Amino acid sequence: MKRNESGPSQASAKDESALAPLRSSAPLLAAMTGKASPAKAAVGDAPVFAYIASLPQPQRGVAEAVDALAAKTLPRLRRSVKWGMAYYGVGDGWCFSSGAFVGHVKVMFIKGAEILDPVPPVAPIGMGKATRGVELESIDDIDEHQMELWMRQIAAVPGLGGKKR
């Protein structure tokens, strides 16, 4: 997915140079093997920030952007590291995850095939038949408007992110 743009980029040379490390084709660390990271399970902001900080570029930049978008979109955001990935939720549940892999960051919405409109395109292996999401290779792949809509939709569901009524 590409971010929607209404015209030519207004970015300055300084802005472009700041993004250069995120867009680099530098070799990935050996730790990026195609499986989730070995990060230990822990609830709270600090473990998620530590997990994100441990990622190589460009995955770190993408994960930071996803985390910042989640914080902006969901006021009572909760974070956790589970199964080597960052998990996000509000209320009593977990709504979506963000995990770094070789060449991309996966953002997966729990029960996304049943709840989200439109349904995200990627069906991950080993995360449940109803889980759907996107694979982001760079910051430019983030469609902020669409991601915000999905985050709000999934967080409003009782048991996933919303309070049970």
Description:
There is one protein chain. With about 160 residues, this protein is α+β, with helices and mostly antiparallel strands. The protein contains five helices and six strands. Strands 1-2-3-4-5-6 form a six-stranded antiparallel beta sheet, with helices on one face. β3 and β4 form a beta hairpin. The termini are far apart.
Set out the fold topology:
Layout: H1 13-23, E1 42-43, H2 45-53, H3 59-73, E2 78-82, E3 85-89, E4 96-101, E5 104-109, H4 112-115, E6 132-136, H5 144-155
Antiparallel strand pairs: 1-2, 2-3, 3-4, 4-5, 5-6
Mean pLDDT: 80
Per the principal axes of the C-alpha atoms, what is the gross shape?
globular
Number of strands: 6
Q: Roughly what percent helix?
A: 25-40%
Q: What is the N-to-C order of secondary-structure elements (H for helix, E for strand)?
A: HEHHEEEEHEH
How would a textbook summarize the main sheet? 6 strands, antiparallel
Approximately what portion of the residues adopt beta-strand conformation?
A: 15-25%
Radius of gyration: 16 Å
Number of helices: 5
Query: Regions with pLDDT < 50 over 5+ consecutive residues?
Result: 1-33
Q: Roughly how many Å apart are the termini?
A: 35 Å
Structural class: alpha+beta
Largest sheet strand order: 1-2-3-4-5-6
